[in-house]
Sequence to fold (123 residues):
Amino acid sequence: MARQEFSKRIKSKAAERANGHCEQCNKKLRVGEFHYDHIVPDGLGGEPTLENCMVLCLPCHKDKTRLQDNPIMQRADRQRKSIAQGVHTARKPMPFGRKSNLKVKMDGTIVDRRTGAVISGTR
Ligand SMILES: [Zn+2]
Fold:
């Protein structure tokens, strides 16, 4: 997925709203010393809208990225990976129970609940 950058219009509106100050620490900003930040990171589906745009001085932006976005992104990444590998089931579901990913149909066919794919045909 391509990064969704803020449009010029959004940026200028955000800059207007910030009124020359960092929207986090309220420090006065100088030209070239700020970033337009995605409040909800782009990688997590944050939209390039004015509501999701924050004007941050460089130290604030760096902190936010390091302290907030990266851990969230890494966690989301881990979750995606573990789900893909099927290791997110800490508690073992009952075999073919309601929480199990597999179910046995009346005719004995085993299907994957998530995808509906047939795992094994009629016994
Ligand atoms: Zn700041």
Remarks:
- The mean pLDDT is 86.
- The longest helix spans residues 58-85.
- The helical segments are 8-18, 58-85.
- The chain is about 30% helix and 15% strand.
